[in-house]
Write a structure and sequence with these properties.
globular, 4 helices
Length: 117
């Protein structure tokens, strides 16, 4: 079941955050992926909004409803229409989720050099 663009537009219109960067989305196979400066923070799959799970989000939601947007995916928080319709509440949740995602240090793969042998 494909997600209609009007749902996407409504959700994007609800997000009001003040931070340097930009929110973008891509559409694949009727599903939308939201990114902030290239980091995925949410998805819409079959008219359901899945927010990337973070400690900050878990504390904010208190008892989050969890689910997976696709087979073998990590658990995400399912955000109801009632929740994302409250722009101030939803914007706070999105902002703290993005903050935690961006604060995680990237994994740097160590390359083996010949003199390490």
């Amino acid at each position: 079941m494909a997600t209609k663009k009007r749902i996407l537009d409504f959700i994007l219109g609800q997000i009001e955050i003040e931070r340097d960067g930009y929110i973008t989305y891509t559409k694949k196979f009727g599903k939308y992926v939201f990114t902030f400066n290239g980091e995925i923070f949410a998805r819409i799959v079959d008219k359901t909004l899945y927010l990337t799970g973070t400690n900050a989000g878990r504390n904010f939601l208190r008892n989050p409803v969890k689910g997976t947007p696709y087979k073998n995916a990590d658990q995400h928080f399912i955000i109801s229409e009632e929740q994302y319709s409250d722009s101030e509440w939803f914007s706070t949740l999105v902002d703290m989720t993005i903050e935690e995602i961006l604060s995680k240090k990237p994994y740097l793969k160590r390359h083996r050099h010949d003199d390490d042998l």
